[in-house]
Amino acid sequence: MSTPLPRAGRHRRRIRIGLPVAAAGVAAAVAAALLTTSAGATTASASPTVKPATSSASLSELTDRVAGALTTDKDFKKASRTKDTSGAGTSSSSSSSSSSSSSSSSTASGTGTVSPMIIGGTTTTITSAPWMAQLWYYDDKGTTATGDDVGFFCGGAVVAPTKILTAAHCVKGFDWHANGAIVTGTDQLPTTDTSGNTDLHGGTVSGVWRQWNHPSYNATAIDNDIAVLTLPSPVKATPIRMTTSTDTASYAAGTSAKVYGWGRTSSTSQDISQTLKTATLPIQSDSTCATAYKQPDGSDPFIAGHMVCAGNPASGSDSGTTATCNGDSGGPLVVNNRVVGIVSWGVENCVAKGSYSVFSKVRTYVGAAYPRIDDTNLSGDHRADLFVRSQSTSTGYEKDSQGTSFGARISWGSFSGYNTILQTDLDRDGYQDFVLRRSSDGAVFWLHYIPATQSWSKKEIFSNWSTRKFTVAPGDVTGDYLPDLLSVDSSGNLWIYPGKGDGSFASPVKVGSGWGQYNSLRGHGDFDGDGKADLIARQSSTGDVYLYRGTGTSGSGAFAARIKVRSAWTGYNAFDAVGDITGDGKADFLARNTGGTLYLYPGTGKATSEIFATRISVGTGFQAYDIWG
Q1: Which residue from 25, 265, 320, 589 has the highest number of Cβ atoms inside 10 Å of its Cβ?
Q2: Tell me: the pLDDT tens digits for 548-559?
Q3: In sequence order, what E strands does 469-543 have?
Q4: Residue of 64, 169, 520, 524 with catalytic role
Q5: What is the pLDDT of residues 219-251, one digit of tens each?
Q6: How many angstroms separate the Cα of 369 from the Cα of each of 166, 197, 361, 411?
Q7: Are 146 and 15 in contact (CB under 8 A)?
Q8: 225 assigned to active site
Q9: Alpha-carbon distance 386 to 352, whole Å?
Q10: HEC profile for 124-139?
Q11: For the whole prediction, is pTM greater than 0.85?
């Protein structure tokens, strides 16, 4: 048990506010800090400027947010939000009506809920579910009055060291950077004693740096209900992976899935469970779910393809019912150690006869969510930025994405002595790293930022790569959520260097031969929308461009058969792929023509000749740069 932490501030009277509320600002990056590179290389040392990830809150402030949310949210009676679903969740023999609600725990003027558990669940431990996270939100609105306070609780899953997967209705409209706190590493909810001290029961509290929710989230329909929170520093919790876009087996009717959450012990009692709960639920077919929620007017709040429901039909009471309930929002539905669903909504009080628990269908949204898992960039927003080096001065420059253009360049100092510079994040700490190859001897270095010392460290990771034709940092190729490196040797063989998440690599694995036929090999992110890292290659002899779709595996099966997506791209002499430049959740591509004009090719997510939308000119004069990140 951890030492109790003091709770700052005054005790507050509980009030209630519906979830969600009107949109609040997304967490903003803070002022830049000037940093220096480490010594130890014969190349020039750059002096890059980085916008550090921060929660803008001290440990005591974060703990106070937890305490405030806990006090404000702990014993309310009614569901946080309802939509009219008269007849939903009722059988033909029942005339009672019920309404669906998001399964979040909130406090509101007029409505509110406790932080409930899974009804019918059993106790589990953090060892069994090390990726579980508690999301606490508390905003006192900066006033001495208590009537405007906002506080609520949701669940979530750690899907990368700095990433929390949760529901959009827990995120949209709330400023998590200013008011949120994430607790990981414990199966116990926090408690406060009579002196106001908060005990996290061995858990670790983190702030939130930035937030993303699906851009098409519909609060009325509770549709596209998926979000990702980015933490300012990695947590020790073991991540769990999302399922893939091609996964159909996990959604077959009858498949056993596990759901996790904290809270309410009964539909009729407001008692909460101090300990994490789990339950096993059978996946139901879309037709079963749609029938259960079909309305008298013929409409149906269950949206096939976007949602999945699970469980046995509720009995109408706690006895014989196993279901998610208010407060479980954002928690994961797990099949074969993959997140296949996110707790989204259900009927009010959770046990109406014939009802099921409803989840966001992760398979549908992994293509949109994956770029947020691997979205490290230079400016600290949700758009990938560009790093280029001046041919004449060897000065490196940051050019921040503005969606369909780039801002004024920002100098990072001298990068002389290198012939390869790649943007990546090998340790998944939320900061942009660089892979550098030294011109003189082919030594390859990992340049990464250390937040604790506000400095850069450079580590040699490979030696004598002078003859390597290409080196690519596409992200996670092997499907373990750890970024990898690819390299083509002088014989045209492609190798995967599986990343360990700390700047080191496992033994290389050969993908195949024949890659020497290309004069460009680029990739960072997911071009076809399936949540797996892909490659773009241009053939030397014809200028034809091919997509190699990642499969999420290693070895010879790492990429599917190539797909021709462009013919005779001979007018371009430089390419780059840095991820999602436009911020729409799809990887984009950059191409420079022989006249020095740079074009943005927005990704469409289609693995066809329509892989890119109409090109957009983002400026001239780009012939001045010889290296692209």
Answers
A1: 589
A2: 999 999 999 999
A3: 470-475, 484-488, 494-497, 509-512, 518-522, 535-539
A4: 169
A5: 999 999 999 999 988 899 999 999 988 899 999
A6: 11, 37, 12, 31
A7: yes
A8: yes
A9: 53
A10: CCCCCCCCEEEEEEEE
A11: no
